[in-house]
Specification:
Bound molecules: adenosine-5'-diphosphate, magnesium ion
Shape: globular
Strand content: 15-25%
Strand order of the largest sheet: 12-13-11-14-15-10-16
Structural class: alpha/beta
Mean pLDDT: 86
Largest sheet: 7 strands, parallel
Oligomer: single chain
Distance between the termini: 32 Å
C-alpha cells in the first residue's frame, strides 16, 4: 500500500460498494485511514469450541458439527435449514434469504465444519441463524480465536467489516515516524506503525495508558495543537500599529461610578499593547460572570476609535446586544461617539442609513448580532471586532471572522466560561488569553443553599417575600416537558404549579420557543412585568438582570458544577444580595454532596471548572459542549494530562522548524489539514 492510499475513499477497497460505503459513512468511516483509527472496543471470544450440550442461549459461540441434511423449503418466507449434530446433540443452522447454490457449496453432507455465531433456541432445538463464520476444519484457525469487535451500525456485518479492516491493517504502509525513537522512549510512547497494529488488538485498545494508546493520544493532541498554531500564524499577520493617547479612556474612567479592579486594568493594558503592536491582535478575555468584561472592551473600543478606526461589537442575542448598546451610549456620552445598532430585524430603510454611515466612516461603533457580518456590510476603516460570549463559535468560525475583518482589524473575544488549564490549549491554542481573575470589590458573594425537594414548601413563603420586596426570581428546571424516562422536573409542569400560586407574575421560557418569543419574554422580565421566570438553561448567556436576586435550580445534581456556577451568576449582579437555592431529590451520593460543598464554598469560576473536570470528566464541561470543539476521540484531559502538556511544548518547539511537511501525514490523519487551508477559501 502506498502511503497516500490511506487517505483515499474506502470504496477503493476490495469488497466496499456504494451500499456499504453508505453505512460506514454513518460511523464516520469515509477514508481508509478512518478504519485505522476505528479501534475495537471488545472482542468476541470464539477461541473455544463448545460441544452442543454446553451451549448457552444468547451467547456467541463456536461449534464443530457434522452436516446431516440440507432443507430448502419451496415456500416463501420459510428459511433454509441445515441439520447438524455432534456426539452430544443436534442443532439447526438457519438462513434467511440466502441462495441455495451458495449453501450447497458451503455445507457438504457428512463433512465436519466449524461454525460460529449467536446461539438461540427455537421449537425445542438449538439453532444459529445466519452464522458469522462457517469454515472447514483446515481453516478453523481463522475463526477460533479472539476476534476484535468494532462498534458498527446496522447494515455492516462483523465478518464483512473484519475482512475489510484486516485488509487495511495488514497493509498499512511503513510510515516515516515524525517522532524520533529517543523522544518515544523517554515519554513512554511507541512507534506509529507498531502502535496501530497493537491497538487493533483489544487488550491494547482498552488500556488507555498503554504505550500504544498514549501514542495515538499524543498524535491526536499534536494534530489539534498544530492546526491551531497554524491558524494563529495566519491571523497574527503584520498590521499598521494603532496609535492613540489615553484621553478617551481617562474621560470615561472619570465618569464611571466605580473603579476598575486591578485585574481589569491589567487586561486593558495587555489589549493596548496588542493594539499598538505591529501584529494583529487575536485575543480572548476570560472572566467569570460579573467580572466586568464589558467595560474593559468598551475602553479598548474607545482607544481604537481615538486612533481613527471603526469598531464592531457582536453579541449572540438581540437582548444582550441591546443592553450593550444602551451601556455604550451612556459610557461614551462624554466623548460623543457615533454608535449604531443593527440586528436582523432592523427595518430596511433604517438599515440602509446605517450601512451608508458605516461605509462613509460616520459611524464609530456598530453594535448588534451576527447580522453585523453579512456580506453587504462594509466598514470604511474597521479596526476592531469584539465578540461577546463567544463560546458559540468554533475555531473555524472565529478564524473566518478574523479574515472577514480585514488585515488591519484586531479581534477580541470575551467568554465567561472558565476553562481548566489542561484544556486551554485545545480550545484557544490559536489565541492569546487574558484573564480577569477578580470580581468587583463591592460585589457580594452569592449565598448558595441546598434543600431536598420534598421540603419545597418551606421556600414558598420566602419567595413570596422576595416578590413583595420587588425582587425577581429565576426558576431553572432541567427539562422542558415531562419525560417518561427521566425523573426530572420539567419547566412546563413547574410553570403551571407556580402560576397557580403567583398568578400573572410568572413567565415561562425554554429552548424550543421561537427566538422572537424568547426575546419577548426576557424583555418582560427585564421590565419587571414578570416576577418569576421559569426556564430551562436558556438563560445562561450574559444578560444583565440587575433586579434578579434569587435563583432556584431544580434537580441540581443533573448539572455540572461549572454550569451551576454560571447559572447562579445570573443573580446578584446589581445592588441586591444574590441567593441561589439548589433543590435535590433525596439520597444524594457522596460525590453530589462534595459538589454542593464546592459550590457553597467557592466563588471562583476557574477553581470550580477544575473541580468539575475532576469530578465529572470533560465530556460534561460546558466550554466543550458549546465551543463546537467536540471531545477528543482518544485524549482525556484527566488521564492524559501529562500528554497535553507534552504536546503543547512539542508544538511550541517545532513551530520554529521551517519545514512542516513531515507533519502533513499527521494532520491529514486527524482531519486537520483543512484547518490549515480553510483561510484561503
Ligand atoms: P461580565 O464579565 O459577566 O460580562 P459585566 O461586564 O456585565 O460582567 O459586569 C457586571 C456588572 O459589574 C455590570 O453592572 C458592571 O457595570 C459592573 N462592574 C464592572 N466593573 C466593575 C468594577 N470595577 N467595580 C464595580 N462594578 C463593576
Ligand atoms: Mg458579559
Amino acid at each position: 500500500m502506498k502511503k497516500d492510499f490511506i487517505f483515499s475513499n474506502i470504496n477503493k477497497l476490495k469488497g466496499v460498494g456504494p451500499q456499504l460505503s453508505k453505512y460506514l459513512k454513518k460511523k464516520k468511516i469515509e477514508k481508509i485511514k478512518d478504519i485505522i483509527l476505528n479501534l475495537p472496543y471488545s472482542e468476541t471470544d470464539r477461541s473455544k469450541i463448545y460441544k452442543l450440550n454446553e451451549l448457552e442461549i444468547g451467547k456467541t459461540q463456536s461449534i464443530k458439527v457434522k452436516i446431516k441434511k440440507l432443507n430448502f423449503p419451496r415456500i416463501r418466507n420459510l428459511p433454509n435449514k441445515i441439520n447438524c449434530e455432534d456426539e452430544t446433540g443436534k442443532i439447526d443452522i438457519v438462513y434467511f434469504n440466502s441462495r441455495e447454490g451458495y449453501l450447497r457449496k458451503l455445507f457438504l453432507v457428512n463433512e465436519w465444519v466449524i461454525i460460529s455465531g449467536r446461539v438461540n433456541y427455537f421449537n425445542k432445538k438449538y439453532q444459529i441463524t445466519n452464522p458469522d463464520y462457517v469454515t472447514t476444519l483446515e481453516n478453523q484457525d481463522y475463526v477460533i480465536k479472539n476476534i476484535p469487535k468494532y462498534d458498527l451500525t446496522k447494515g455492516i456485518n462483523e465478518k464483512k467489516y473484519r475482512s475489510i479492516s484486516e485488509q487495511v491493517i495488514k497493509n498499512i504502509p511503513l510510515i516515516d515516524d515524525w517522532l524520533n525513537s529517543e523522544f518515544l522512549k523517554k515519554n513512554n510512547l511507541i512507534n506509529w506503525n507498531k502502535s496501530i497494529l497493537n491497538l487493533h488488538s483489544v487488550k491494547e485498545s482498552k488500556n488507555i495508558n498503554s504505550p500504544s494508546f498514549r501514542r495515538i493520544v499524543f498524535d491526536e493532541l499534536c494534530a489539534n495543537f498544530l492546526a491551531l498554531s497554524e491558524n494563529r500564524k495566519r491571523i497574527r499577520k503584520r498590521k499598521t500599529p494603532k496609535l492613540f493617547n489615553n484621553s478617551y479612556v481617562d474621560t470615561i474612567i472619570k465618569s464611571l461610578p466605580f473603579e476598575l479592579t486591578s485585574s481589569q486594568k491589567k487586561v486593558l493594558n495587555e489589549i493596548n499593547l496588542d493594539l499598538i503592536s505591529d501584529y494583529r491582535m487575536f485575543r480572548i478575555i476570560q472572566g467569570d460572570v460579573g467580572s466586568g468584561k464589558t467595560i474593559v472592551s468598551l475602553l479598548a473600543i474607545s482607544n481604537i476609535i481615538k486612533s481613527g478606526y471603526q469598531c464592531a461589537l457582536m453579541c449572540p442575542t438581540e437582548i444582550l446586544a441591546k443592553q450593550h448598546y444602551e451601556l455604550a451610549k451612556k459610557v461614551f456620552k462624554d466623548i460623543g461617539l457615533k454608535i449604531n445598532f443593527l440586528t436582523g430585524k432592523t427595518e430596511y430603510k433604517k438599515k440602509k442609513e446605517i450601512l451608508l454611515d458605516l461605509s462613509n466612516g460616520k459611524t464609530d461603533l456598530l453594535i448588534g448580532t451576527h447580522a453585523l457580518f453579512q456580506k453587504k456590510i462594509n466598514f470604511k476603516r474597521l479596526g476592531l471586532v469584539v465578540i461577546d460570549e463567544q463560546h458559540k463559535f468554533g475555531v473555524k468560525q472565529r478564524s473566518d471572522l478574523a479574515i472577514k475583518g480585514g488585515n488591519e482589524c484586531d479581534v477580541l473575544l470575551m467568554s465567561a466560561t472558565p476553562i481548566p488549564r489542561t484544556m486551554m490549549m485545545s480550545l484557544y491554542g490559536d489565541m492569546d488569553v487574558s484573564k480577569i481573575t477578580e470580581k468587583p470589590l463591592k460585589r457580594k458573594k452569592i449565598i448558595t443553599l441546598s434543600k431536598p425537594e420534598k421540603k419545597i414548601s418551606e421556600i414558598w413563603p420566602f419567595i413570596k417575600k422576595q416578590i413583595e420586596l420587588d425582587n425577581q426570581v429565576f426558576w431553572v428546571c432541567p427539562l422542558i416537558e415531562e419525560s417518561a424516562f427521566l425523573d426530572y422536573t420539567s419547566a412546563k409542569k413547574k410553570f403551571k404549579l407556580i402560576e397557580q400560586k403567583f398568578k400573572k407574575k410568572v413567565g415561562l421560557i425554554h429552548g424550543s420557543l421561537e427566538k422572537d418569543e424568547k426575546q419577548k419574554i426576557l424583555k418582560k422580565f427585564l421590565e419587571k412585568k414578570i416576577s418569576i421566570l421559569v426556564s430551562t438553561t436558556v438563560i445562561e448567556v450574559g444578560i444583565d438582570f440587575p433586579n434578579a436576586n434569587l435563583i432556584i435550580i431544580e434537580n441540581a445534581n443533573k448539572f455540572g458544577l461549572a454550569q451551576l456556577h454560571q447559572l447562579r451568576g445570573r443573580v446578584g449582579r446589581g445592588e441586591k444580595q444574590g441567593i441561589c437555592i439548589l433543590l435535590f431529590k433525596d439520597g444524594l451520593s457522596k460525590k453530589a454532596v462534595k459538589r454542593i460543598k464546592i459550590l457553597k464554598e467557592s466563588d471562583d469560576g476557574f477553581f470550580i471548572a477544575e473541580e468539575d473536570l475532576k469530578l465529572r470528566g470533560f465530556g460534561d464541561l460546558i466550554g466543550y459542549q458549546q465551543s463546537g470543539t467536540k471531545n477528543f476521540r482518544f485524549a482525556d484531559p484527566i488521564n492524559h494530562e501529562d500528554l497535553f502538556r507534552l504536546a503543547e511544548n512539542y508544538i511550541k518547539n517545532i513551530n520554529n522548524e521551517v519545514n512542516h511537511k513531515k507533519y502533513n501525514f499527521l494532520l491529514k490523519l486527524f482531519d486537520k489539514a483543512e484547518i490549515i487551508n480553510f483561510n484561503k477559501v
